[in-house]
Task: structure prediction
Amino acid sequence: MTLQRLWLRDFRSYEEAEIRFGPGLTVVVGPNGTGKTNLLEAAGYLSILGSFRGAPTEALVRLGAERGVVRAEIDADGRSVLIEIEIVPSGRNRVLVNKQPLKRNRELRDVLRITVFSPEDLILVKGGPGERRSYLDGVLTMLHPRNEAMLTELERVLRQRNALLKQAGGRLSAEVGFTLDVWDAKLGHVGTDVARARLALLDDLRAFVATAYSDVADRPAPVTLTYRSVWFDRPDGLPGALAEGRIDDARRGLSLIGPHRDDVELLIEGRPSRTHASQGEQRTLSLALRLAAHRLLTDRLGEPPLLLLDDVFSELDPQRSDALVRHLPPGQALLATAGFVPPAAEVESILRVARNSGSTRLLPVDKAVESVDETAWNRVT
Result:
């Protein structure tokens, strides 16, 4: 799958833009605050119908405009697919695929998958358990539709169980207990399925993460990923843990145990990466997690997702930056940067970004280059 053309109207800082992309690495360069990341965000929106930066819908529409438009032509397995999205801040977005209304969000991911690298990825290592669960669940969702349905069911069951616990107000009446039995059975079933899927995914990711870490660090280092769950290895499993913790759940009005509380422990050379690794080691591990997911998806699905690299070199030393570009997987990639691109990068084309009267303009560099050293880079930027 390849993003071939992208049109923007009133998206973020872009009043109007039309861009053609090649199958290799496109570098988007310009000063901070000019709209480089906005372009990557638009490309990502085509796949996930949301901002990979977590921005609300109203922030995606240019100030003063009523709606924004993201439109793209994509080569998906040799067939041309047209995606058209109208973003409405205070209403319902309109999404067409080859002029037909979108039925399920999954249809977009089947046309264009993305992998995003950004400085914020450090939260995968330094953040709480929810960040690492989201990482696993995101990969599971891209791997197969059944995983998306399974995770959606988990959210639904948890929402219903928590609503019941909150309504009970800490009192476990016979009626509340009977209804909890029903939701506990459902949570026990889908929760166990989710944990098993995450464990299987971790088994598949370990070798990819170890290789990616060694690639970016430019030296071998043992990396360990372990799924941590207080209930999974119990003989009575999640149903037993839920029964044991029911009084506490009722007192708090919240489900305190289950896959929504599990974690992934990350170790580098046997030390907890969250507390004992250096900043450079933590950044390397976060990049390794993204690279590993990208390589696994490519291996499983037969083609690489679109790589979106948002200012990844700003937080890396020159050695790790060079190692990262040397080990970028093949396929299409968009790289936004305000500064220097390592000499090892094989750049297919360059887009310069500038602001004029509050709107972003894209200025294609006349001649595409195969690689960029520091001298050549300074000439084009």
Notes: DSSP finds twelve helices and 15 strands in the chain. Residues 345 and 363 are 21 Å apart (CA to CA). Confidence is low (pLDDT under 50) at residues 366-381.
